[in-house]
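WARN retry 2 of 3 for item q-0093 after timeout on previous attempt; input resubmitted unchanged.
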Amino acid sequence: MKKTYFNKQNVKLTDPTYLNGEFELEYYILTNKTDDEKNTYGVEIIKKYADVYGNRITQSNIEEVITEKENDIKSFVQKLFECMITPMCLNEVVIDFKNGLDI
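OK item q-0093 returned
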């Protein structure tokens, strides 16, 4: 599997219910070769933040096979970035994408 950096963003929330309203999201495109040498594309999202004790926490989620079309994965990951999709939500968003729904 090849992992290619796509983009990252720092998110600052003003909602007082969050213990720490600041975190970083990183987005990667994953490229896999099938047995017949075709490419399939997936995505990884990594969320980094500090907890109330100052410990650095990293959460990630991977969906290895989303599409066989490079242009589709690029536009999909751009939408993930624009909507600030986190690792926790990735699986549901991928299901919607595969079912033809928009983010």
